[in-house]
Design brief:
With about 280 residues, the protein is an alpha+beta fold. The chain contains nine helices and ten strands. Strands 4, 5, 6, 7, 8 and 10 form a six-stranded mixed sheet that branches. The longest helix is centred in the last third of the chain and has 16 residues. The protein is globular and about 55 Å long.
């Protein structure tokens, strides 16, 4: 018996409103990789070694498989998964949303004093506070509090109550722990320092600023082979600046924005960045 009655019907309704959805099996978890995608063999999702989209027609890539396409949601592979699903998951970041997942009464009490009111959805143990606006996802920003937005999924538990507020700076600030060089991803991660003292070898901040600007220009002026251009540009930036610790989230966001202006998806940007880091051993 499904926790969500008729999960496929619920999913189609959400998708029609612009919310990317995916089926969840018992335990509130996505379906596992199919044989063709096992052990990162398909090469088209975060943390895989080769760039490019996975063309698997199934549902085996968690948040990265979430979609609003009704044809995909009603396809044979997805329909078979919906029959086994117990609930509906969705990708908040893909819908331009951020979920503050409050896991217990103490976390809820904290939110009521620290965060602006917004739409609230009751969960098994706590509440989801939903804001309009996307950001990176980070777990355990404080006891009992997770942030779910880009590169994450949340369980759909109903429309909730109350008007939805814009994502406030107080929530964005929760994701900032310490200033550090970082790659994009669901959790903060520092770029490993190179050999020696780890001090930045660049003489002035202008050197890095000029390098980022040139990288943006290379991407935005590309007229063909966009995937390859983005990957090569990321590789060049990381080879020059990836080991000294001078790259920040803001720099990475500028590169991703340039790539997305040429039609790249956030997922493809993350794939290319991760693959470039892997190639360089970062």
């Amino acid at each position: 018996m499904s926790e969500t009655p008729y999960p496929q019907h619920t999913a189609l309704s959400l998708a029609a409103s612009g919310v990317p959805v995916l089926p969840l099996r018992r335990g509130k978890v996505p379906f596992g990789n199919c044989p063709a995608c096992a052990d990162n063999a398909c090469g088209g999702r975060p943390n895989m070694k080769s760039a490019g989209p996975c063309r698997c027609p199934g549902v085996c890539h968690a948040w990265a498989a979430a979609t609003t396409d009704p044809a995909v949601l009603a396809s044979p592979a997805w329909t078979a998964a919906w029959r086994r699903a117990v609930s509906v998951g969705y990708h908040p970041g893909g819908a331009g949303l951020t979920v503050v997942d409050l896991d217990d009464a103490d976390a809820i009490a904290w939110a009521r004093t620290a965060l602006p009111a917004t739409r609230t959805v009751a969960t098994t143990r706590g509440e989801h506070w939903i804001y309009r606006g996307a950001m990176r996802s980070v777990n355990a920003v404080r006891p009992g509090v997770d942030l779910k937005s880009t590169m994450a999924y949340a369980r759909y538990l109903g429309p909730g109550t109350g008007p939805m507020a814009d994502l406030p700076d107080t929530v964005r600030a929760l994701a900032v722990k310490e200033p550090s060089a970082a790659r994009p991803g669901p959790q903060a991660a520092t770029v490993p320092a190179g050999a020696g003292s780890g001090e930045c070898p660049h003489r002035t901040p202008a050197y890095l600023a000029r390098g980022i600007a040139m990288a943006e220009q290379r991407i935005t002026e590309a007229s063909s082979a966009i995937h390859a251009t983005v990957y090569r540009t990321f590789l060049a930036v990381l080879s020059r600046h990836g080991r000294c610790g001078c790259l920040t989230d803001a720099h990475v966001a500028r590169l991703f924005a340039a790539a997305q202006s040429k039609g790249e998806t956030p997922r493809h940007c993350t794939d290319a960045w991760t693959n470039a880091r892997t190639t360089l051993g970062l």
